[in-house]
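User: Fold this; tokens only.

Assistant: Input:
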Amino acid sequence: MDFALRCNNLKCRTQLNERAVVTTCSHIFCSPCSQTLGLDAAPTAHRICPACETTLPNPDDVVSTQLNPTEDYKTSVLSGFNPSIIVECAGRGLAFWSYQSTQEIVYQEYLARSLTEKYNNLETEIDKIMHDANTEIDKLNQKISNLQIDRDKLQTENTSLVNAFREKSRKHQQTQELYDRLKRKEMMNATQSAAFESVDEVLGNVHGRSGEARPVQQSFAVRPQRQREAPPYQYDLGQELGHQRGGSNGSGGSGGVMMPPPQRRPAVFGAHMLGKKLLLV
């Protein structure tokens, strides 16, 4: 038969093939469990069945049996009994087997119901988890869509700001260049005015002294100038003055006569020339 006896201890459930311990309440246990549960102890009023908690006080209430007996044992075990006793023993043996089969079926059905309930519970939890996950995914997708829209807006604003910054930078550069030109122009005008004022002040101080103007002008010259020839009218005036003071000898008179100090107009001309030299240097 396909059906096999198993230890009735729910924590063990070992398949029984060789030896086992049976009780009069139609339960069977393996040898290790019978020792652990106290079934192999001496008969007492406190010995009970671990499966149904039935009291087993008699010595024959717990019997160790061979599940695969020899042929000799099969021949001699029922020999000498009345046929009615043999039939009764066989009937009780079949009832034991039937009870174990029924208990195994009930146990398997119980396991099936338990597994079915666990499966249903797990399926319900899985459905709930999937529903929550799908809801969360929908929320995240919506959030991603909103973020993409915001990103596009920010990119548009960024592009506008970059273009505006470039335009502002260009205008600022133009303004800076104009400012630099005006600043250089003002500095040049201020420098030129300061140079003119300094030269005029120096020339005014020179005119206020008793000395001659020519050495003062030469002292302010930046580099030596080639001696310019006297204008014709000054030459004629000097020659005429020489003739008047020294007589008719032109060579002797020209060597001993000094030229008169320059008039105010030539001095102003010299001041402007000196200012130009200072600016060129």
